[in-house]
Design brief:
By secondary structure, this protein is of the alpha+beta class. It has twelve helices and eight strands. The protein folds into three domains: 45 residues, Pemi-like Protein 1, Chain: D (Ribbon), CATH 2.10.260; 73 residues, SepF-like protein (Translation Initiation Factor IF3, 2-Layer Sandwich), CATH 3.30.110.150; 204 residues, Methane Monooxygenase Hydroxylase, Chain G, domain 1 (Up-down Bundle), CATH 1.20.58. The chain has a four-stranded mixed β-sheet, covered by helices on one side. Strands 1-2 form a two-stranded antiparallel ribbon. A two-stranded antiparallel sheet has the order 3-4. The relative contact order is 0.09.
Length: 337
Amino acid sequence: MDRKIMSLGKSSLVVSLPKEWMQLNDVKKGETVSFNIQRDRSLVIYPSSIKKSEEKEIIINVTSNEEEILITQKILGAFLNGYTGIILTSDNIFTVPQTKAIRNMAGRLYMRVMEADAKKVYLQSLTDESKASLEQAIKRMHLISRSMCEGAFTALKNNDVALAKSTFSLDDDVDHFAFFIVRILRNAAQNPYLANELHIDPLDCMDHQMLVSRMEHASDYAADITRHIIMLSGANQTIPGEVIELMITAGTQVADLYVKSVEAFFSKDVDAAVGIMKCRNKLEKLDIEMTSKAFIGPQKEAELVCGICSIRDNIKRISHCTFSIAEIAVNRAFKII
């Protein structure tokens, strides 16, 4: 649809609004409209009444025998898609496990239970995404994720079960940030006004969501390392010294590269990102050496073999997240503005 630019007076230029658009949005002569200049230099016009995203509600029906995991996934899906109100109704009454699952998920998403009875629960999100700082939220998430990676390898080096347990407990905090950030990004991808308020465009949304996903996965892998440290300690099993040294060497390098990859993402430092990717072969050699030495010598208990394999695999997975972030950083640096 094209419109001709016309003169109004000596210095003003005007463009008429399409009649169909005015009817669709119930805009009448004399009313005010709002507009935003987008980062791609396009102009988006809004009826003032819907400039900000309207609150959305969804009703989720829960059967009496519905599993708790399905209920929590439905709540999470609704939250991530921007619903401010989630109404859960039961065809009978909620069971005790269902009620606990609903309340636990609400707590993880920082939603409030506004109304509740035996057959209905109303959850509401009170967060205003337009006032959030996306970059600060991601950096805070990264601080916790970084602490988890560093804590996991320190606990492994010193066989520090207390530190392992403390590090493991941080995983929920990372998840809280991830849920909140993904909700913002999904809303911004659909809402030009919100995207403009956050100073991001759809491609930024995709890059940031991939970054958050890799950070969340790296945190999960670090948590799994601490879980196996705790398990091995409980089983009175000790990883052989040569294997521990290789694990610490590889893990420390991966943790350092992980931090640098996130820094490269925000700074758009291509040289730093490429330098991180060049370390792939070095880490693969450490992994091969670790594998070969892990099973040399006398036969080991099943718990020890399981722990060694899992810790090794998780170090490798964190490295994959790291290299993926570095690749995203390079691609992001060459985005056309």
